[in-house]
Amino acid sequence: MKNKKVNDKVRKAVVGIALPLGIITALVITSIVYTDIEPRDMIVDLTGNNEQPTEEESWHTVYVWTPTGENDPGASTGGFLSCFLLDYGEDPATVLANNATDWSASATVHAYADSDDWSEDTLSEDPFYVVVRARFTATQAKDGAAWNGSRTRVTLTASGDESISQTVVGNNTAETYGGGIESDNNSDYTYLYMNFYFDDNSDGYVISDDGSLTISSIVIDAKY
Fold first, then answer.
1. Tell me, what DSSP letter sits at residue 126?
2. So where are the chain's domains?
3. Residue-level pLDDT at 118
4. What is d(CA 94, CA 161) in angstroms, rounded to the nearest whole number?
5. Whole-model pTM?
């Protein structure tokens, strides 16, 4: 794991998921309950003109996160790729347009989760965005021949020094608490890659000295 080095004189905070034993704070992963999925509705014309019923697009869960660092969803499948903390001094719309697969060496990243059951050290009292990287298939996020990032969204739940329960939608520039940035949109490619960032709409998420932030749920949806 390529953890960010911190001077021994600087107190550390921890961001991660709950581990069975041996971390600063005893943490427990909550069970994931997700009910915000709309059923697929059929609009049936009863006027007698015998037109074929049409099917409305609705949100479907693509992936429910388990405690993993870097992840490969598998062939022809959308889902979770990685999670990291982006420095709050950066412009996420610019930085996250980069389609890098490994952000661990980036000077703008505080902590990058690259292993299962991860617990990452990061500078305390140093604000950040939480970023979730995901990919989507043509069925999930293509309109005809073109990718459409606005048909994607991620819901993040976290607790500890900060409490997060937020959904952000791709390509929504009006999002107050974050947004989804297309990092790779090429109609000839197999997948659409998105970086979703979460913002507290104030001064960034912050972990106190010897504090912690526990991510308990990441739910990735697509509208089709």
1. -
2. 62-223
3. 85
4. 28
5. 0.78
